[in-house]
Amino acid sequence: MGRAFEFRKGRKMKRWSAMAKAFTRIGKDIVMAVKEGGPNPEANSRLRAVIQNSKAVNMPKENVERAIKKATDKDTANYKEILFEGYAPHGIAILIETASDNNNRTVANIRSYFNKCNGTMGTQGSVEFMFDHTCNFRIPANGMDPEELELELIDFGAEEVFEDEDGILIYAPFGSFGTIQKELETRGIEILSSGFERIPQITKELTEAQMADVEKLIEKIEEDDDVMNVYHTMQE
Prior knowledge:
Arc Repressor Mutant, subunit A; alpha+beta; 42% helix; 236 residues; 8 helices; 4-stranded antiparallel sheet; single chain
């Protein structure tokens, strides 16, 4: 198995723990998708993907419809996606994806977390190059052969296809998202969920005490409502 499989396995136990937090994040994704491409899922592939993800976290349909309606309101603030970079204790690189309607607030909060937990907030580009930006899709297994599917999807950008208890996972470079989404839909294959992840190229092994130092910072960051995802180079 490749790095995507190991990364997926390592993050398996670190999924969104609070359902309310998951709904908040999906709500922001809906606003950004609607502002970018309109409220019609048929004509907006990004919104279509977010709606699929809302089903994966059991978000009620009425919540989704309400979020779409709210997003079409001109008075609804748009969220700007901002990437933050830095180092946790013991030389662990940290990459933080946020969606915020108040950049000053988010910058101040992220900086305070680094300062309080003995980390260092970095400049743009200081650690991003240490991660591969990927897209992923989860589809039902339905007796499909992952190896055969991988061969069929290589021409569309797929790099790694494997099966786990959640179904079949397809990983590809960030830029291949639209191409693979279209091909799966053309084939009539149900997309259970999809998204983007940043996989560390190299990870660093730490002692339990050192890991606790890093996790303290990560947990602090993840509690922030503006934070969508946190990635790091610590071996899990």
